[in-house]
Amino acid sequence: MNLLEDFDPGRTNDPYFWIPQGLFNDLTDNRNDVAFARVNLDDQVNGYTNLQFFNAMDVDISSLQAYRTRLLAENAPNNQAAGVITIFNFYGY
């Protein structure tokens, strides 16, 4: 889990450095990684589903910022919105 969530877009020796590998995991899991002192992300979000992720990925989405906005809009009212924004910001988006 820490490998997935220890994302760093500046780690160019990772061939997938441009993919926020832990983003979806952080939106679905109920584990707060800040408690393990490995990843400095206070993850207060859980329960998103692959169906929600897929439904928000429409043809007009061309950036992760737009994807975040659509994901939140399609799941409103969303009491986890602040946490979702925190997670996207953590991954640099």
Describe this structure in words.
- The chain has one domain.
- The chain starts with a helix and ends with a helix.
- The chain is 41% helix and 0% strand.
- By secondary structure, the protein is mainly α.
- The radius of gyration is 13 Å and the shape is globular.
- The mean pLDDT is 81.
- It contains 5 helices and no strands.
This entry's quaternary arrangement is single chain
Helix content: 40-55%
**Terminal Cα span:** 21 Å
Order of helices and strands: HHHHH
Notable traits:
single chain, 93 residues, mainly alpha, 5 helices, 0% strand
Short description:
By secondary structure, this protein is an all-alpha fold. The chain has helices spanning 2-5, 23-28, 50-56, 64-74, 81-90.
List the helices and strands and how they pair.
Elements: H1 2-5, H2 23-28, H3 50-56, H4 64-74, H5 81-90
Helix pairs in contact: 3-4, 4-5
